[in-house]
Amino acid sequence: MDSKRQSSWRTHESRVIYDNPWIRVTENRVTQPAGTPGIYGVLHYKNLATGVVVLDEEDHTWLVGQWRYPLGAWSWEIPEGGGDPALPPMESAKRELLEECGLEAEDWQLLQELDLSNSVSDERGFLYLARSPRQVADPEPEDSEDLELWRLPLSEAVEMVHRGEIRDAMSIIGLLRASSFVSS
User: Fold this and answer.
1) Which candidate among 10, 68, 85, 168 keeps its CA 20 to 30 Å from the CA of 49?
2) E strands within 80-182?
């Protein structure tokens, strides 16, 4: 596998068509790999995506339930959120775990780095496994969050993935990766 290949795309002009504190959308006038002209829109995320699979001594984890406005649907997910790209991603993951669950953990391990929706965005994600959690505070969700917490066996969360009840990509990847760390 050659990761140093040169791009066959040529960009002629770029213009920002939308910008807010979280995202920027750029429209590019391009020549595509086949040599034909085209446009390509790129969604730039101003934060890094972080997610945490919590695993306690009984091989239980925590899911966060919330209404996802863009989907118009309820979603069960691992604790996750955006982080400042100037900070180490693990710091943002620790903040999310405290904010959403009121938990801190002793042992942290990077599970996976991700490129999310890479056909239209540059969003990057970081998934962590947090072991030996302890309750240190009450959850303090953001104004845009109305959260429900659920502590359950990791094996049950993985079964929810297999039944299609968990659809969030970071949650699916994190739970499946973390399942290889549980005692049998």
Assistant:
1) 10
2) 80-83, 103-115, 124-135, 148-153
Query: In a 10 Å sphere around its CB, with 0-12 CB exposed, 13-18 middle and 19+ buried, how is residue 62 labelled?
Result: buried
User: b/e string for 89-110 if b means 16 or more Cβ within 10 A?
Assistant: bbebbbebbbbbbbbebeeeee
Show the tokens assigned to 145.
């969050």
CATH of the domain at 136: 3.90.79.10
Instruction: Please report whether residue 96 resides in a domain.
Output: yes
Do residue 110 and residue 146 come from a single domain?
yes
Q: What is the pLDDT of residue 1?
A: 60
Query: Rounded to whole angstroms, what are the CA distances from 90 to 33, 126, 174?
Result: 37, 8, 14
Angle of helix 154-162 versus helix 169-178 axis, rounded to 10: 130
Q: What's the structural domain count of the chain?
A: 2
